[in-house]
Amino acid sequence: MAGRFKGADAMSGTHFVNPRGLEGFDQLIKQFDQIEKWGHSKDQRKVKSIHKKVAAIARKAIRRKITNHGKTIHVIRTGRLGGKRGPDYDIENGTLKKSIKTFDAKGSRTSVMVGPRSGIIERTGPGAGTIRDDGYFAHMIHDGDLPEHMGGKGSYNGPNRNFYERAMTPAVFSEMTVRLTQMYRVAFDDFMKRQ
Predict the structure, then answer these.
(1) pLDDT for position 13
(2) Do 189 and 43 meet the contact criterion of CB atoms below 8 Å apart?
(3) What is d(CA 39, CA 47) in angstroms, rounded to the nearest whole number?
(4) Which residue, among 2, 153, 158, 172, has the nearest Cα to 66 in the 3D structure?
(5) Has residue 177 been placed in a domain?
(6) 157-136-10 Cα angle (round to 5)
(7) Is residue 26 part of a domain?
């Protein structure tokens, strides 16, 4: 089946992927008359691990569509041109690609999402306390809408424009759907054997 995402569970306004939003997921759930019990039992960690493996397919696909800039971008924040005033900083080469991660969805014990993370604080090592792999600008690149002082709406048409949409092809959705179905059935069968 040529998969696609649907509904509020599928995407956020900043291009995140939630595997539970895959078309066909509801039909799969209906086949398991005790799936709700399974999903809210001690097997929740197993359910989340399945979602993470499925989400990794999307993460790899999205990263493949991102071309590294090749240079460090120096951001100067004087505020004189309309941008926010603050300390200057550098965006290292490869930051956008590195910012695409799999992470837990808020408010759920089993759902995970894929997308650009921002404000991730390094907890250990020489960079402890600093922000790493900050993809706060991902939506600007994807949509091409840069701040007014950098060209404004639609001004970016580089190689990473629409990287998310170009990555999430019917083939990727199909692979995610097949993988999700296979892993769910194996895990659920194991759950039922223990009942």
Answers:
(1) 37
(2) no
(3) 7
(4) 158
(5) yes
(6) 85
(7) yes
What pLDDT is attached to residue 21?
Answer: 52
Q: Are strands 100-104 and 112-116 parallel, antiparallel or unpaired?
A: antiparallel
d(CA 136, CA 118): 5
Domain-embedded: residue 7 = no
Task: List residues bridging with 120 in a β-sheet.
Answer: 132
The CA-atom distances, in angstroms, between 130 and each of 17, 86, 133, 192 are: 27, 16, 10, 46
Is residue 6 within 8 A of residue 18, CB to CB? The reply is no
* 11 located within any domain: no
Q: Are the beta carbons of 63 and 164 closer than 8 angstroms? A: no
Instruction: Find where tokens 């097997």 sit.
Output: 43
| Per-residue pLDDT tens digits for 57-114 | 999 999 999 999 888 888 777 777 666 777 777 788 888 999 999 888 888 778 888 8
Q: How many domains, the chain? A: 1
Tell me how far apart the alpha carbons of residues 145 and 151 are, in angstroms, rounded to a whole number: 8
Q: How far apart are CA 191 and CA 50, in angstroms?
A: 14
> DSSP letter string over 7-37?
STTT--TT--B-GGGBTTHHHHHHT-TTHHH
Please give the residue range of the domain that contains residue 130: 19-188
Q: Taking the model in full, what pTM does it have?
A: 0.72
Residue for token digits 């649907």? 6
Return the residue matching tokens 């990727």.
Answer: 172
> Hey, is 62 helix, strand or coil?
helix
